[in-house]
Write a structure and sequence with these properties.
10 strands, alpha+beta, 194 residues
């Protein structure tokens, strides 16, 4: 009987410690954005942001935003659960590392501006098309799969003239991959939009 109580006590203690450890790991990926930084300090701070998957930046005036910087050339912002009115979406921007370094912060593609391109989301190789254009049912399935996936690939297709056929034909422009650690952050409400 004493041994049983002791075992239950140890089990309770271990569960409590593991819950705190899990909470600490999640909180490591929720970061407050400093209010006043010089451009040089901001650039240095930005380089220290997580590169293993999702993280949340807390802005004093703009609420929370969900990001993924695991691709060295592109940065992804994703909003699935809006804090206020708005609809789910995404934004891909060039990172400060893209090309000659002068593209940092420039929008590449978003759920609101596809610039005539067709996009395709793949989670661990499974094609979900463009879940942001297909409606709530497709988006719900995509959200559930996104939480469990390890890799997101965003393929962007554009039309290009084919001199052999004399017609515009769809062609893959690029595929961009992101790591998907910390999927538990996808359930948190964030500011929707850019």
């Amino acid at each position: 009987m004493i041994l049983t109580r002791f075992s239950k006590g140890i089990l309770t203690l271990l569960l409590t410690i593991s819950m705190y450890a899990l909470q600490a790991q999640t909180n490591d990926h929720i970061l407050q954005v400093p209010e006043t930084l010089s451009e040089k300090q901001l650039s240095s701070w930005k380089k220290s942001l997580p590169k293993d998957g999702w993280f949340i930046l807390r802005f004093k005036k703009d609420a929370d935003r969900l990001f993924n910087y695991s691709n060295k050339d592109y940065e992804m912002s994703l909003w699935l659960n809006c804090t206020e009115k708005g609809k789910p979406g995404f934004l891909i921007e060039y990172s400060d590392s893209y090309g000659d370094g002068n593209y940092g912060g420039i929008d590449y593609i978003s759920s609101n501006a596809k610039n005539g391109n067709r996009i395709q989301f793949l989670l661990d190789g499974k094609n979900f098309g463009d879940p942001f254009a297909k409606g709530d049912d497709k988006l719900t399935v995509f959200k559930a799969a996104l939480k469990k996936a390890h890799k997101l690939t965003l393929s962007v297709y554009g039309n290009e003239f084919n001199p052999r056929s004399g017609k515009d034909e769809e062609k893959l422009n690029r595929s961009i991959e992101f790591k998907l650690a910390h999927g538990e952050l996808l359930d948190r409400p964030v500011n929707c939009g850019k």
